[in-house]
Design a protein that fits this description.
It is a single chain. This protein has 151 residues and is an alpha+beta fold. It contains 4 helices and 5 strands. 32% of the residues lie in helices and 27% in strands. It has a 5-stranded antiparallel sheet, with helices on one face. α1 runs antiparallel to α2 and α2 packs antiparallel against α4.
Length: 151
C-alpha cells in the first residue's frame, strides 16, 4: 500500500496485513474470508466474526460498485490487530463521494437501477464499534472501521 495514513503507530506492537486486489465483485468474498482468517487469531465469537465479515463485505462492495462502477480499479485492504482491537481499512481510488453526509443516510443510494438498498454505511456502523469515512470527488474513498474483540 502507499505511504498514506497507516493504522499502525511505532509505539504499539501489532499484527498487520495489506491486500491489493482487482475491484471486481468476485473478490468481495475473498476479502471477507481473508479478513476473517486474519482476525481468527483474536479468538472472536461467531457473532464478532460475522459482524466484521458483513462490514468488510459492504465496504468492498461499495468500493467496487460505487467507487469504480463499470471501470476497472483496485481495492486496497489493510487490517491491523492491536491488543483486542481490530482495525480494517478499505480504500479505493474511484470517483469519490460528492456529498458524504447524504451518502451516510440510511436508505440513500446513488444506484438508479433499484438493485441497491442504500444500507451499506448503516450496516458498517451497526456491526462495528467505530466507522470513519473520508472521500474526495475524483480521488476515491477510505473507510476505516474498528471492532473490539472479546470486550
Amino acid at each position: 500500500m502507499e505511504e498514506e495514513k497507516k493504522v499502525q503507530t511505532e509505539q504499539e506492537p501489532c499484527d498487520r496485513i495489506c491486500l491489493e486486489m482487482d475491484g471486481v465483485s468476485r473478490n468481495e468474498e475473498f476479502a471477507r474470508v481473508v479478513t476473517a482468517v486474519f482476525m481468527s487469531r483474536m479468538n472472536p465469537t461467531l457473532e464478532e466474526m460475522d459482524d466484521v465479515k458483513t462490514a468488510v463485505s459492504e465496504a468492498v462492495t461499495n468500493a467496487i460498485i460505487h467507487g469504480y462502477g463499470r471501470q476497472r480499479g483496485v481495492v486496497y485492504i489493510e487490517a491491523v490487530i492491536s491488543g483486542q482491537e481490530l482495525t480494517v481499512v478499505i480504500r479505493d481510488k474511484g470517483v469519490g463521494i460528492r456529498n458524504l453526509e447524504k451518502a451516510m443516510e440510511p436508505m440513500y443510494t446513488s444506484d438508479v437501477t433499484g438493485e441497491r438498498s442504500g444500507m451499506g454505511f448503516s450496516f458498517m456502523e451497526a456491526f462495528m464499534d467505530e466507522l470513519e469515512v473520508e472521500s474526495q470527488p475524483g480521488e476515491g474513498t477510505t473507510v476505516r472501521m474498528k471492532k473490539r474483540i472479546g470486550g
